Amino acid sequence: MQQLFNSYLRYLQAERNASPYTIRNYSNDLMEFFDFMKRRKLHSLKEVDRQTLRGYLSHLSEQGFVKTSIARKLSAVRSFFRYLQREEYITTNPTAGTVSPKLDRRLPSFLTIAEAKRLVEAPDLNKPEGQRDRALLELLYASGLRVSELVSLDTGQVNLNTHEVRVWGKGSKERIVLIGEPSARALSVYLTGGRLEQLSNNKRKKNNAVFLNRYGARLPARRVQKIMEKYARTIDKPVHPHMLRHTFATHLLDGGADLRVVQELLGHAQLSSTQIYTHVTKSQARKIYLAAHPMARKQRDDAE
195 and 74, same structural domain? Predict the structure, then answer.
């Protein structure tokens, strides 16, 4: 079983171009499934059937996992068994026809324009880390980058003259994202100032990463979350890195941007992934309407 598992992980990396983050998640989810097999006294993957999978889904639910986590874990198991069938280790795929739990469609949370402005302007520009954090926040808000895309950026991917950033997203797909003047200015200040100071703390004095830590090494993704939590205090609101991606998309659509353009900038493979933001803008429009229109206010008062 271990040999099949290792070959599957190599397949994800070499043929599917899966990111290290995806491989790590799939690995963890599959190890959890293997533990379940041991408890069921199943010693071979050929012994897994639909009844096993139904039992696994029930087990996850009893353990308190939310629907999104259960769906993700099932997706990892499905992918693994498709690979086993492709390699002719099994003749029939027990995951075929297994239905994922129906997910609740939640609207993404986002910041108002005023909140986003206060957040990105919070860092102290007199310090190298402050210059980095300002550039980081400005770039996330201006481009809608994923955190994995942000921390993997190298200096050669940023063109401040054309205000463009070349990004490799999910599945190693390349796209060009645009940034505005504030973001370009913040990046310029950091790249010619604070970043050079941070880089001087690196013994090798060489690192192509755009965003560095205080020791001149590439900034890890988990550190970005800590940075967000620090400056979120200025707006007294919980903020996570993906919220700025949501904010980017929502503000673009509120400003009249075409949905297809937003899809391209976000790097979504399917338009349906982008359409969730149209629900957000409709929800926001309804709130504004109820608060502003005199007849809407009268109806609301009568209802109360």
Answer: no
